Amino acid sequence: MSTDDRSSATPTGATDDGGGDESLVDVRNLQTTFFTDKETIRAIDGIDFTIDPGETVGIVGESGSGKSVTARSLMGLIESPGRVLRGSSIRYRDLDTVRSFADAFSGRTVSVADLESRYDPVRVFDQTAATPAEFGYADPADVPLVDVVAAGYGDEVGLTSGDECVFVLDGDAGDPSSIRRGFVELTRVSGEAQRKMRGGRISMVFQDPLTSLNPVYTVGNQIKESLSLHQGLTGKEATQEAADLLEAVGIPDARRRVNEYPHQFSGGMRQRAVIAMALACEPDVLICDEPTTALDVTIQAQILDLIAEIQETRDVAVMFITHDMGVIADVSDRVNVMYAGEIVESADVEPLFANPKHPYTEGLLNSIPGGQVGGRLATIDGSVPTPNEEPTYCRFAPRCPKAFEECEAVHPIPVPVDETADDHTAACLLYPEDESTEAAIARHRGRSHGGERE
Ligand SMILES: Nc1ncnc2c1ncn2[C@@H]1O[C@H](COP(=O)(O)OP(=O)(O)OP(=O)(O)O)[C@@H](O)[C@H]1O
Ligand code: NI
To answer: Which residue numbers delimit the ABC transporter domain (predicted)?
Structure first.
């Protein structure tokens, strides 16, 4: 424990948090790797995205593109031989959560301003595998200290101890009510802090409801367990709330059905019950990983409606994962298109569908059968390669109708599709499209997503 790092000194102004201040979740350079006997699979290879409060962020891509591993990384569910690598950061910015964590885990809370006097960027970048480029800077001295410590490199040079998971940017770490800016770093939560985040602030609905339901307990008892754990409700109060939740997710005759077992529910009703369980934690973020794939088409549409309704009435942010472009169009505010462990295009839903930029996105759109919701994605020729080596090229190039020579030699990074489009990025050498091909290629060549090396 790093109780020594807990200081009551007043910070001298907040360290720059690198923008995107209003996002609830801020994923930066996330790298999740599976070290199998056979190969090293870079399942998530340096992705960035954000989730704003109350919005629905879609993640779409073919099988094997890394959607579920992204969700599991956010939930802290990656198990050996997998690991979220150093250099990754997943920031959870809800201020109430930050304050309550600073209170509950004072020994794991650190004020970034207090580290400043001991921070020597040259030493960090000489003594660790970190590179300024992975943080988006050329000069080590420009990299914000908070980025370095949140990504875990502070531990390697003795700046932090490895226990800190709450970073205070503005306010007094020792006085939670004074905190005005900060975040919980999800790649560093463990133990009790992890249990409060996972299934608490962030909750997940899986493809198969039976993975979340225990066959030997009634549906009501499982919801009540969650209510007791996360809201401290017990007895009659909990029974009442469990029935109310089942009713809220559209289960008819909820007061009777709360006493039934999962096998007495139909597939669609089970998924509704799982959603009720997830809501029992009163989450700020609901992650849905293909929640309707196992259901028939009419039921699918009902569950999608339910998720949309929940999002509106309970002000929950949703991260929605599917391989189905039709569903993505229906549910998302913002869309991230994944391919072989990378986000290859990111935009608000309208521009993405009206004006797709990455050839992979175009391919996905062309293969929607009649644009109908629920239609399975017809495949683009070939399949997603296993990302088992460091990319020095475009992973989509072998399947890309627009590929040219340099695509085999330069790894594209997400860049604005044109000068005016900050919110629309594509990882493709064709962009920014208002630059000459040479200038665009130089931009991609010059930067890389670094991070921990095996
Ligand atoms: N436990 C594991 N061990 C080794 N490799 C894994 C493991 N889990 C996932 N992977 C690999 O990570 C990559 C991404 O898998 P992921 O399950 O995230 O894909 P997905 O986009 O969710 O696909 P689908 O649409 O089929 O669910 C794949 O190459 C997969 O083989
Ligand atoms: Ni998946």
So the answer is: 25-365
What are the start-end ranges of the E strands in 158-261? 166-170, 181-185, 202-205
- Does an H or E element contain 320, and which? strand 317-322
Pocket of ligand 1 (CB under 6 A): 34, 36, 41, 43, 61, 63-69, 82, 323, 386
Tokens of 370: 């009649």
Domain identity same for 131 and 273: no
- Least distant ligand from the CA of 67: 1
Atom of ligand 1 nearest to the CA of 65: 21
Task: Decide which of 324, 347, 377 is a domain's last residue.
Answer: 324
Q: Whose CA is nearest to atom 28 of ligand 1?
A: 64
Let me know if residue 68 belongs to a domain.
no
Expressed as residue numbers, the domain containing 94 is 3-54+78-192
Query: Cβ distance 427 to 409 under 8 Å?
Result: no
Atom of ligand 1 nearest to the CA of 386: 29
- Please report which confidence band the pLDDT of residue 447 belongs to, taking 50, 70 and 90 as the band edges: low
Torsion of CA 91, 312, 339, 359, to 10 degrees: -130
H or E stretch covering 82: strand 82-84
Q: Phi and psi (nearest 5°) for 267?
A: -55, -50
CB 321 within 8 A of CB 206: no
What pLDDT is recorded for position 18?
A: 43
**Shortest-distance atom of ligand 1 to CA 338:** 21
DSSP string of 35-79, one letter each residue? E-SS-EEEEEEEEEEEE-TT-EEEEE-STTSSHHHHHHHHHT---
